[in-house]
Each structure stands twice: as C-alpha cells, then as structure tokens.
Design a protein that fits this description.
single chain, eight-stranded antiparallel β-sheet, mainly beta, 8 strands, Hypothetical Protein Tm1070, Chain: A, 122 residues
Length: 122
C-alpha cells in the first residue's frame, strides 16, 4: 500500500492531567497515534512547545512499515520535558507521509474522560 497522510502534523492542544485513579494501565496520559500505511518505515521527530520556556526535543520515534504506534507523550523522556498539569503543543515531522491522531485519557476521577481528534496536517 502507498503512504497516505502528510509529513508535518501539529497538535496545538496538549495537557497531561496530573493525577489518576485506577490501575497503572489507566493512568492519565496523552498519546500521538501515528499510522504508517506505506512500505517504508517512518522516522518521526516530535518537538514540544510551551507557553513559558523554549521547546523540548526533537524526540525521535520510528513507526515500522504498515504499522501503527501509540506514543504517549509522558513516556518520551524521564527528564521532566513533558510537564504534568501544564499546557504544551507539539509538532510531528515524518520522513514519509503518516496520519496522526491525538488522544487524551483523563482518569483523575472515577468516571474517566477520553478526548480524541485528528491533528492539523500541513
């Protein structure tokens, strides 16, 4: 199958909720769901932008050919670059066309909330 999608995607709304209820698998998080339909691996660079400091990254992830990757933003690094409970935005740049969807799980309350939207393609 050929590559579908775009090479540059923006997610202007980012916020990893601070706190969770339930098991670790249901921890509050945000995810970039990246779909690679083509026959070549996708090499994606993720840069994070903040309202009060310089950008972080780029963080590099690979999405194998004809596969999907659900990359949690709060698992990109352990150095605190993805703040919990603070606003940020992200730009994903791929060397081949991919499709990006943004998802947030907010499990701060027992009644979990899930938000999902397609990112902005450029």
């Amino acid at each position: 199958m050929e590559h579908i999608g775009h090479r540059v995607w923006a997610i202007p709304e980012g916020f990893v909720p601070d706190g969770s209820t339930g098991p670790e698998s249901m921890a509050s998080h945000e995810t970039a769901c990246i779909l690679n339909t083509g026959d070549e691996d996708a090499h994606v660079k993720i840069t994070l932008f903040f309202p009060d400091r310089e950008p972080a990254g780029p963080y590099e992830v690979a999405v194998p050919a004809r596969r999907t990757l659900h990359q949690r933003f709060n698992e990109l690094t352990d150095d605190g670059s993805v703040p919990v409970g603070a606003d940020y935005a992200s730009v994903l740049v791929s060397d081949v066309p991919v499709v990006v969807q943004h998802t947030r799980l907010d499990s701060r309350q027992a009644a979990n909330a899930l938000l999902s939207t397609i990112a902005y393609a450029s």
